[in-house]
Amino acid sequence: MKPTFPEIIFVTGIGTGVGKTIVSAVLAEALHADYWKPVQTGVLESVDREIVQNLLSNFESKIITDSLEFLHPFSPHYAASLENKRIELSHFTLPETGRRLVIEGAGGLLVPLNDTHLMADLIKKLNVPVVLVTSSYLGSINHTLLTIEVIKQKQIPFAGIIFNGNPFFDNEKIIDRFAGVSVLGRVAYAETINKEFVLQQAAILKSRLQNSYIL
Predict the structure, then answer these.
(1) What is the greatest pairwise CA distance in the chain?
(2) If you ran DSSP here, which 8-state letter would residue 90 be given?
(3) So what's the pLDDT on residue 201?
(4) Three-state DSSP class for residue 89
(5) In this predicted structure, what is the pLDDT of residue 103?
(6) What averages of pLDDT result for each successive group of 10 residues across the chain (215 residues)?
(7) Cα separations (Å) of 176 from 58, 146, 210?
(8) Active-site residue numbers?
(9) Which CATH architecture is the domain 8-212 placed in?
């Protein structure tokens, strides 16, 4: 019997700029899930929840306001310090929703929230499984496998990997072989990211997930 796909997932990445926001939008569209970003930095430049909102086509998903927002596009701990603030784990509680929930982190697992806690500690507090976004480039095998090792060491529930962008040689094959974790799917590369693209990618991802999970 197929397992049930998690009701709540936390989307993290192997680094900054690997496509967490686009993948989060695709997941929210595929699952008709709500979206929440606990910490948003760089609001002077862009806000990820607005990007996701503009990419969704379904009328069920709700965009939940970020718990904390900071002006400057730096690591959360430093962005907070520039405003004479400190991020505490107690600032975060899972929002109540009657739908699935896609949570998007800031940066990777070991991004600092303050001088004692990392993003991984927030995930542990929320106690939700991680979806890891990896982008194929020279060095991404190492970055991906290192991140998976951290997930395992910290005993964080792991839903699987989503590859973002075009394949790079045999990266995916090697990562799959050495990581021994579930590959949930891929989000294709596109020069223009819009609603049509997200809707198309969501249909592909949903079809793949339905082969392995009860949605």
Answers:
(1) 52
(2) G
(3) 98
(4) helix
(5) 98
(6) 95 94 98 98 92 97 96 96 97 95 96 97 97 92 96 95 91 90 93 97 97 95
(7) 32, 13, 20
(8) 37
(9) 3-Layer(aba) Sandwich (3.40)
Calpha distance 82→9 (Å, rounded) = 30
Neighbours of 186 (CB within 10 A): 20
Which pLDDT does position 137 carry in this prediction?
Answer: 87
Q: Is the dihedral of CA 5, 6, 8, 9 positive or negative?
A: negative
The pLDDT of residue 44: 86
180: alpha, beta or left, given left = phi > 0 and alpha = psi -120 to 50?
left
Between the alpha carbon of residue 164 and those of residues 3, 7, 95, 189, 195, the distances in Å are 24, 22, 27, 7, 17
- Measured CA to CA, the distance from residue 195 to residue 138 in angstroms comes to 30
Extract the runs of DSSP E, i.e. beta strands, from the chain: 8-13, 34-36, 39-40, 63-64, 68-69, 101-108, 130-135, 158-164, 183-187
